Structure formats: structure tokens, C-alpha cells
Amino acid sequence: MRTILIIGASRGIGLETVRRALDQGYRVRAFARSASQIPITHTELTKVNGDALRAEDVAAAVKGVDAVIETLGAKASLAMVTSHTRLFSDATRILIQSMESAGVKRLISVTGFGAGDSRQHMSLLQRLPFELLLGRVYADKAVQETIIRRSALSWVIVRPGILTSGPRTGRYKILDKPADWRNGTISRADVADFLVKQIEDDAYLGSKTPALIG
Q1: Which residues form the NAD(P)-binding domain (predicted)?
Q2: SS3 5
Q3: How far is it, in rounded angstroms, from Cα 16 to Cα 121?
Q4: What Å distances lie between residue 141 and 146, 175, 196, CA to CA?
Q5: 189-206 burial string, b = 16+ CB within 10 Å, else e?
Q6: Which contiguous run of DSSP H or E holds residue 2?
Q7: How many helices (H) and strands (E) does the chain have?
Q8: Of 41, 46, 108, 125, which is most buried, counting CB atoms within 10 Å of its CB?
Q9: 9-60 pLDDT, tens per residue?
Q10: CB atoms closer than 10 angstroms to residue 160
Q11: pTM score above 0.85
Q12: How many Cβ atoms are within 10 Å of 13's Cβ, its own excluded?
């Protein structure tokens, strides 16, 4: 049985990924500052309280795992609009260093549609409010993607569209060609389904950065 570390596991996509990975028969190590409050009980679930910006916490969590799924998120706040953030890039640097030291190769990381070269595929109507509300966050996500690309890991970068709380449908679209990239909505549960599939699937390793929409 493979052991999967999920970073940012206490809510959102991370929590849905914990559920899906357990359903698919993986042993899950759920890492978050409030991991002890995760509302799931399972014999193959270990809850690890830790800070993604503390190298010692991450290094301890990474030891002995077979793959890492990074699902960091930021709560909506005024600071997201007015201040620069380095949460995603700094946490990813720490994670990659820890993985390389521990010999863990596979990293599946969620950024979002609008990060990196996907931003130019947004319509003008979408881009204006996006830049105002999320521009600083996604600028750091773009740095995060660059750090991952430059690493020696076997990586998958996943860019979901606008997230909803809907159920898992399995009928989402995987847009892996830049000419097809577009924004749309997708449930967190469907994103989690795709993330867990990447533990075994090599189709998107190291080059494609698929966008996901429902």
C-alpha cells in the first residue's frame, strides 16, 4: 500500500483529496496546521499538525512517503488584494528541498487557471476582476510553478478553474493543449479525483500543465 502525503489537507481540495485517496485504497498522511480537526476517521489516515513554512515540519512529514499532493490555499482576505504573498513559492521551495533530501520523486501540485502562461487565455471580462482580486496571489503561484519546473522531481502541475462545492461527477474536462485552455467551473471533489489518479498515471508528468473544468 502506497503512502501519500497531502499538504493543505484540512479543507477545500485538500480535504476532498484525503477522502478520495482513502476511497482508492491509499494510506494517507494529512498535513495541515489544523490537521487534528479533519472530520474523517479511517484506519489508514494519519493526521499531522504542521506548518508548510517550517522546514522541520515538512521534512518530518515527507519521510517514508511515496508521493506528495500539494493543495495549499489562501483564505480570502483584504491582504490578498493589497499585499504581496510568498506563501506558495516559499512553501514549495521547502517542500521540494525536503522531498529531494528524502528521495521522494513524485509531486502533484495544484495552482489554478490564471497561473503562469494560462493567464493569457482568460477573456478580458474575466481578467480584469481576476487581476484586481487575485493578481498578487497568482503572481506567486506563477513563481511556484517555475520552482517546480526547475526541480529534479517527477511533477504534475494542475490548474483547476473556478471551484465549487459540488459532488464528484467524473465527467470533467482535462485541457492539456494550450490552444484548448479556457476557464470554467469544477467541483473540488472532481479536482481531487484527478489528483489521486496522477499518483499512478504518467501521462502529464513533467511537461503538460492541464487545466480542469467541469
Answers
A1: 8-201
A2: strand
A3: 27
A4: 9, 19, 21
A5: bbbbbbbbbbbeeeebee
A6: none
A7: 6, 10
A8: 108
A9: 999 999 999 999 999 999 999 999 999 999 999 999 999 999 999 999 999 9
A10: 27
A11: yes
A12: 26
CA–CA gap between residue 2 and residue 13 (Å, rounded): 20
Nearest Cα to Cα of residue 111 among 213, 35, 210:
210
Q: ∠ CA(131), CA(138), CA(17), 5° rounding?
A: 130
Burial of 209 (0-12, 13-18, 19+ CB in 10 A): buried
106-110, strands of its sheet edge to edge: 45-49, 27-32, 3-7, 67-70, 106-110, 154-160, 211-213, 173-175
Residue pair 109/144 in contact by the 8 Å Cβ criterion: yes
Q: Is the pLDDT of residue 75 over 80?
A: no
Q: For residue range 102-150, what is the model confidence (pLDDT) as tens digits? A: 999 999 999 999 887 887 777 766 766 666 667 688 899 999 999 999 9
Cα of 26 vs its chain's centroid, Å: 18
Max intra-chain CA distance, the chain: 48
**Tens digit of each residue's pLDDT (9 = 90 or more) over 156-197:** 999 999 999 999 999 999 999 999 999 999 999 999 999 999
- State the average pLDDT over residues 59-72: 98
